[in-house]
Amino acid sequence: MKKNTLIGLTALALATLTAVGYGAWTVGMNAGMAMTTPQGAPTAPDGAATASTQDPSAWTITQGFEATERHLRDGLKAGDVDPVTGLKILNYHDPMVPGKHFDAPGKSPFMDMLLVPRYAGGNEVDTSGVTVSARTQQNLGLRTVEVTEGRLDSAVSVAGNVAWNERDQVLVSARSLGFVERLHVRATQDRVALGAPLADIYVPSWVAAQEEYLAVARMAEQDPQLATLRDAAEQRMRQAGMSPAQIQRVVRSGSLQPRFTLTAPLGGVVTELMVSEGATVMPGMALLRLQGTATVWTEGQVPESQAAQLQPGIEVSATSPAAPGQTFTGRLQALLPSVDPATRTIKARLELANPQGRLVPGMFVQMRFANPGARNVLLLPSDAVIHTGQRSVVMLAEGEGRFSPVEVRTGREAGDQTEILQGLQVGQKVVRSGQFLIDSEASLNGLLARLSPTPEAAAEKPAASPPTTHQTDALVEAVDGDTVTLQHPAIPALKWPAMAMDFQLPPADQRPKGLSAGSAVRIEFEMRDGDLPQITRIESAATGAKR
What separation in angstroms does the CA of 162 have from each of 224, 263, 330, 349, 503? Predict the structure, then answer.
């Protein structure tokens, strides 16, 4: 009995030890397998781990070059998913010129080096922008607009008032002492036609000169030797103030012309009437003023920002509520040399054709200047551009919820369109509404400061060793004008590997003499966004003396 009990206890102990041992073995195997599988690696449906992914945010530039070489070998490009990282390829860029993006891997057009890929998927991958989720975009009401190419509607349109053309007026005055016997025009603003009678004047001195001429002319008919006296008498009529037409009338008629009728030298309006019937007139006395109506002036205030587009002589069209359905044409006569300090406008004087004299002073007209030099340019809605006072920035939509600030150079502005001179390409999308919220987030992340440091920020940096200045030894490979190609070692501060690349040279008087291929130099340079690195100091490595 005791023997059977002992055997049973022994068997139970062996079974327990076996179970514990198997359990420990199982736990150990599972732990070992867990250690061989990278943390966070995706697993297959059957529980087997797939190939591990890499985090591009931790890559060095050399690893970026290696990734580009692999993309070239595997035929990957922007928009594809990199199997090594598991992330979508956003684009490729040159680390030295980060503002330029490319859709395919390859060699940089700026440096003797490969481009580096940029990936979509989070701030830990790409710190050149901010990420906004689709839900947040919807809540903020973010809207994007595409950069287009077209003609800027820069035709200037201004309002103005009609005035008389001061270059088209005549002052009629008396030539001799006389008396106004009759006025054919009675009041100002009377319209007269070309050649219409204005006034009948009796001039006693003209009567005396005519009588002398007629007497000598009758004697010259009997004695041809008196022809010289006749010519002298005709000259005295001219000296008395008679016009050639009046003299010829006396000569042809052979009779006395005691009264002379002044006629209108042009068609228009009587703007001033200085005499009345029966008045005595003196030589040189103004009788009346005639204003031509074939053309009129219109004067409008043009913003000084648009005045540069206008040149005297360009065509202009105008309409007036006083002449519905009629368009008046003309040209810009002059931009008057004065600026209204309150409205910052320049007065433009135009000359318009005035058929039938429908335009009169004081009328309101709307003028539109032609723009014959219009050409296709990049256009963007004006409200999509953020003007900070020091630069102009847009928030570029890169897809996958990514937004990055891009500095642009703007040109003319007309209506709600702004001309983009530099910084964007056709087809790119920028944020039109809500961009100030993204701009604020970018500013908090320091992106705008990296985009273009302000002079104040630069002034606060230590003068002895500014963070943007770097030094290295190098070997000159080629010199082309103001650009030098240098072979330099690795620069850890910039995470640059050893490579050959182009630099911008300082002025000629700050370069070593005899700088050519094969020269060993030591340089100090600073990075410039969107351009070649600028050498601020270069000296010969052999002497170490600055030239």
Answer: 61, 28, 13, 10, 61
Cβ atoms 525, 470 nearer than 8 A: yes
The count of other CB atoms within 10 Å of the CB of residue 439 is: 21
Residue 379: strand pairing partners: 148, 419
Closest CA to 68 of 31, 17, 126, 119: 119
**Which residue in 405, 408, 492, 410 sits closest to 449, CA to CA?**
405
3 state DSSP class of 263: strand
**Residue-by-residue pLDDT tens, the chain, 547 positions:** 444 444 444 444 444 434 434 444 343 434 333 333 333 334 333 433 333 457 776 677 778 888 999 999 999 998 898 888 888 898 888 776 666 788 889 888 777 788 889 887 644 444 456 666 677 667 667 788 889 888 776 667 888 899 999 999 999 988 888 899 899 998 998 999 998 999 988 888 888 888 888 888 888 888 877 888 888 888 888 888 788 888 888 888 888 887 888 889 888 999 999 998 889 888 889 999 999 999 999 988 888 877 777 878 888 889 998 888 888 998 988 888 888 888 888 888 989 999 888 899 999 999 888 765 567 788 888 888 888 777 788 888 887 777 788 888 888 777 788 888 888 888 898 888 765 556 555 554 444 554 544 444 444 444 444 446 888 999 999 888 888 888 989 888 777 778 888 888 988 888 888 888 888 999 998 887 656 788 988 998 865 444 4
Residues facing 149 on adjacent strands: 378
Q: What is the 3 state secondary structure string of 100-148? A: EEECCCCECCCCECECEEEECCCCCCCCCCEECCHHHHHHHCCEEEECE
Cα distances (Å, whole numbers) of residue 522 to 509, 536, 539: 17, 11, 5
Phi/psi-derived region of residue 67, left when phi > 0, alpha when psi is between -120 and 50, beta in every other case: alpha
Pair 236, 250: CB distance under 8 Å: no
Residue corresponding to tokens 């031509």: 292
Quick one: the chain helix, strand, coil %, rounded to 5?
Answer: 25, 40, 35
Closest CA to 302 of 156, 419, 154: 156
